[in-house]
Amino acid sequence: MANNTGQTLLALLTGAAIGAGIGILYAPEKGTKTRKNISKSAQKAQKELTKQLKETTNSLSSKASAARLSFEDKLEDTISSASHKADDVLKALEDKLEELRKQNSKLQKK
């Protein structure tokens, strides 16, 4: 969605720059004044594009940071869950081993 917004904004700015350039070229002014107007329009378009680039970069950076934090939280939960399950398995194995030792002890007494 952000990509479509950026493309739309770029298309609008490009269209505006082309329209402004054509309008200036057909305006009944001297060449020096026309060149100044073209230069001002180009600088304005450059500033707008720079502003949009910064906004898009900040937005993507924020989204990437949020995704990283979410991933870290989910990873931590998964590791914690796996650790608890491993503890449960170890406890069950220790209980079974103790039971087998008792049975072995009884069999050796007989």
Automatic annotation (TrEMBL):
Region (Disordered): 32-66
Residues making up the signal peptide according to the UniProt record: none
One Pfam assignment: YtxH
Superkingdom of source: Bacteria
InterPro entries xrefs: Desiccation-related_membrane, YtxH
Keyword Transmembrane in record: yes
Key words, A-Z: Coiled coil, Membrane, Transmembrane, Transmembrane helix
Biased composition (Basic and acidic residues): 45-54
Coiled coil: 83-110
Transmembrane annotation, as ranges: 6-27
Protein name: Gas vesicle protein
Source organism of this protein record: Planktosalinus lacus
Lineage: Bacteria, Pseudomonadati, Bacteroidota, Flavobacteriia, Flavobacteriales
